[in-house]
Design brief:
Membrane topology: Multi-pass membrane protein
Subcellular location: Cell membrane
Number of domains: 1
Keywords: Membrane, Transmembrane, Transmembrane helix
Oligomer: single chain
Shape: globular
Main location: membrane
Protein name: MFS transporter
Largest sheet: none
CATH class: Mainly Alpha
Strand content: under 5%
CATH topology: Growth Hormone, Chain: A
Amino acid sequence: MAGRAYFPIAFFSRLPSAMAIVGVLMLVMSTRGSIAEAGLVSAVAGIGTALAAPIVGRLADRIGQRWVLVVCAAVNTAALAGFVLLAYAEVPLAPLLIGGLVIGASAPQAAPMSRSRLVALAAAKADPRQRTTLTKMIMSYESVADESAFVLGPVLVGLLASTLGAWAPLLAAGTITLIFVTLFAFHPTAVQADATWEDELHATPPASPFTPRLFLLVAGMFTVGAFFGTTLTSLTAFMAASGAESLTGILYGGLSVGSVIFAVVMAVLPSRFSLRSRWVVFGTVVLGAALCLPFLTTLSLMAVMLIVAGCGVGAVLVSLFSLAAEGAPAGRSTTVMTMMAGALVVGQAIFTAIGGAVAEASGSQLGFFVTVATAATLVLLALGNLALRRPAVQ
């Protein structure tokens, strides 16, 4: 339905987002020598995404994805290049914070727009009884694509930074954005998806997506991002203490290896194992792995435990996105998906700053205890979602 060329284009379009947070963190740390300042700039980038993502989603729902993506790609490419210049210009921290804000606000929302496109295409073609199954398959695929990008993104950052310099990852991200996001914007699925949602809006009056259940899902996604953020900064401090700082991105990519595996597994789990129950079960897996992180002392054990944590995170991400897709009102899919994706990014960015400050002041062990707190919160939110009255569509 989407065409063979769609999938590589959509995948590479989301890769810069996976590179930007880690790239900003490593560049600022390289030029200013402070994990705390690097985490703060990354947090501001996340705040920019949180502020802009819902607006971008609403614009895409109203006027279509194509030109929204083109404008975002142009601005984001310029912002990434400008940030590199600022980082090496020995400017005060404030201009870097502004640069990070622009990077986050202009980030093209390729991943949520891809989800919206595929769900719209499936809804237009499929029998209503198949929509739930197809939606779960789409969310599993999209989570695999996201997590694969999160594997490749940090690895590329690590390789480019260690071979060319700390400036290289952000310039590479800008180049990828300019090429692939533009191709993604002009792919025929953009028009097809917009037409599908327009037809649904004529058939069903638009409803507000802002429900208590959605806010709980957004909070869960924010907490997953917080887990990523605190893990990244605490791991950075751990690797610096081990004398292997340049390998941080590669080891951090291990977190996504497990996520990819279980994002695939989620597509074949029986339907009687409900999405709400999956959030509880796999959130507990994340918590169990997180509890081990503060006490690990070797790189090999750290890598293994990150993979285990990633298994739980991948399953939770699929569950959250699937629950959000099922609950999105007609014509509001892009809005809901950008809210979810934005919550993930802002959670990662804010807790990158918090984790960076804690790790710099007290070491990686205390930073990993913050990671434990985010994992525990994820489980509590899952239990709260399970306690809510079961929705009509599940």
